[in-house]
Design goal:
Low-confidence stretches: none
Shape: globular
Number of helices: 14
Helix content: 25-40%
Largest sheet: 8 strands, mixed
Structural class: alpha+beta
CATH architecture of the largest domain: 3-Layer(bba) Sandwich
Strand content: 25-35%
Distance between the termini: 55 Å
Mean pLDDT: 93
CATH superfamily of the largest domain: FAD/NAD(P)-binding domain
Number of domains: 3
CATH topology of the largest domain: FAD/NAD(P)-binding domain
CATH class of the largest domain: Alpha Beta
Radius of gyration: 25 Å
Length: 557
């Protein structure tokens, strides 16, 4: 057990199927109550889709495990009702520093611009996130969270899947229209279905040591190559909640994991780093190797894989849980439309298409980071050390330094759901990109743009003066809300004003929207429910918007 965290055991409840009082078929069943499975469950339940979650354990993760949650993930957690809790408890940071021996050679800022709601990253132990998610899940009446329910067999069918589940009261079966698999890197469901993951296992080992100490270190990420306190290897340090500091020591492939985890071996390493006078308490220790692998396809009929069950990356760059939660964010709005009969099941092909593309982006970045951190040849080591030496004084070399490219959302530029630009735009807000944030105002109240966008399709239309929008145009805007898949049109303007037909007006108080989206009066952005951009135009055309919506929901086939 940990000195800074009190673990709770969640009660096992006899499933209704074993009492003969429930149907055995459900719209969605999720296997795995970790960060990703719970995020998917909350998202669907908030959208009105009944969900059953099965987990073979009855508590949150042991040890801090995943600790870094990126800005994009925090924006997703905001829509799940969890963002404030996580940010309030976690340690926010934007700056990372890289050292070679004892000298700083490179630093970066994850959020170089102001006027975003969320920081570039927070550090928060995984057990807190899971605890908050479980609390939120229990608030939702159509979310059935079942602990001590272990899936022991799965039979995929054309219209869903049948599961056999083992509990303290014995076996029972249930059926589901859709099965979401979020049971981690050692996925039992993947194994039961004889599905493989392909990729690379890195021949190195790292020691994680979580220590409790009071230190006035800046809330930054510090990474050392070849420091004097751990020569020839690398070390990572960053602060978490409760005065817990995560330290990662590179060990080399020949290190014996059980020997390295012993306190009599861990404590001298930490003292060499912190000095003999620094008081600390050892909280949690683990030794790990890492892999960069993924399944070839994340969708197998009506069985959908998310998170580590679908892909695994090295921990450098914080791309594991962050990409998994973005998997859930990508999947759930599409699954909702399919379940409601508003989109064909082929829409879910785009889940695998987009998230395999994102996984490859993460795998490529993760592999490059791992190769730089743990060079496997004398030539690679010489290149790395030369790069670090040059980085002290030369900007070109700093771009080559790689202590883990930190998680940012993948731009889904090649997605089949995008409508390509017909006009010239500049900037990063291209079709397939996740939206940037901006400070806004509505009816005199300040808010953040991303807090009012998402969960449905929206069209943001930049106008010079909202009061000058004529009645016919306003009625055209409003008509888009009456379709089977509604689009809410919102006017964005640097001027406050009242629009006809009850249209909402977001006032771009600092002109950040116009700046970040390269928006001019008349510009239109069609936004997906997961806050990714589906299309953009320089002028509003209702037929073009409807066609882009059909494409973004696979209804144009």
């Amino acid at each position: 057990m940990l000195s800074t965290y009190q673990y709770s055991s969640y009660a096992y409840v006899r499933p209704p199927e074993q009492s003969g009082v429930a149907d055995k078929r459900y719209p969605v069943v999720i296997v795995g109550a970790g960060p990703v499975g719970l995020a998917a469950a909350i998202d669907l339940a908030q959208s009105g889709i009944p969900v059953v979650v099965l987990d073979d354990d009855n508590t949150v993760s042991l040890g801090s495990r995943g600790v870094c949650y990126a800005k994009r993930t925090l924006e997703v957690l905001d829509r799940l009702g969890l963002g404030d809790k996580c940010v309030d408890k976690g340690v926010s940071w934007n700056v990372g520093r890289t050292f070679f021996n004892e000298e700083e050679v490179y630093n970066f800022n994850l959020r170089p611009q102001d006027d975003h709601k969320r920081p570039g990253m927070i550090n928060l132990q995984q057990y807190y996130l899971e605890e908050y998610e479980i609390t939120r899940a229990k608030e939702l009446p159509n979310l059935d969270l079942r602990f001590k329910n272990k899936v022991v067999s799965v039979n995929p069918e054309g219209h869903g899947a049948t599961l056999q589940v083992e509990t303290p009261d014995g076996l029972y079966s249930l059926e589901t229209d859709w099965l979401i698999v979020a049971d981690g890197a050692r996925s039992g469901i993947r194994r039961l279905m004889n599905l493989e993951v392909d990729g690379k296992v890195f021949m190195d080992r790292f020691l994680i040591a979580d220590v409790v100490m009071k230190a006035d270190f800046p809330t930054e990420r510090w990474f050392w190559f070849d420091p004097p306190f751990h020569p020839g290897q690398s070390v990572l340090l960053h602060r978490q909640a409760d005065n817990v500091f995560r330290i990662d020591f590179q060990l080399g492939w020949q290190a014996d994991p059980e020997t390295e985890k012993k306190p009599e071996n861990v404590i001298p390493r930490i003292k060499a780093m912190l000095g003999d006078d620094r008081e600390f308490e050892l909280e949690w220790v683990s030794v790990y190797t890492f892999q960069c692998r993924r399944m070839n396809n994340f969708a197998h009929g009506r069985v959908l894989f998310v998170g580590d069950a679908a892909h695994q990356v090295s921990p450098f760059g914080a791309r594991g849980a962050n990409s998994g939660i973005q998997d859930a964010d990508n999947l759930c709005w599409k699954l909702k439309l399919v379940i409601e009969g508003k989109a064909p099941s082929s829409l879910l092909d785009s889940y695998s298409e987009e998230r395999v593309f994102a996984a490859d982006d993460n795998l490529q970045n993760s592999t490059r980071s791992s190769d730089f951190i743990t060079p496997k040849s004398k030539m690679s080591l010489a290149f790395r050390n030369a790069t670090l030496t040059l980085a002290r004084d030369h900007a070109f070399a700093r771009t080559l330094v790689n202590s883990g490219r930190l998680s940012v959302p993948t731009v889904l530029a090649e997605s089949s759901l995008n409508t390509q630009d017909a006009s010239e735009f500049s900037g990063n807000m291209v079709p397939g990109a996740a939206m940037d944030d901006a400070p806004m105002q509505e009816d005199g109240h300040n808010f953040w743009l991303l807090d009012r966008v998402g969960k449905q399709f929206m069209a943001l239309v930049l106008v010079g003066d909202p009061s000058q929008v004529d009645a016919a145009t306003a009625r055209t805007y409003k008509s888009l809300a009456d379709a089977a898949i509604p689009i809410e049109v919102v006017l964005v303007s640097s001027k406050a004003g009242t629009a006809l037909e009850g249209l909402r007006v977001f006032v771009d108080v600092k002109n950040r929207f116009a700046e970040r989206f390269d928006a001019q009066p008349g510009s239109v952005y069609l936004i997906r429910p997961d806050q990714h951009i589906a299309a953009r135009w320089r002028d509003f055309d209702a037929l073009a918007v409807k066609a882009a919506l059909a494409r973004a929901t696979s209804n144009d086939q």
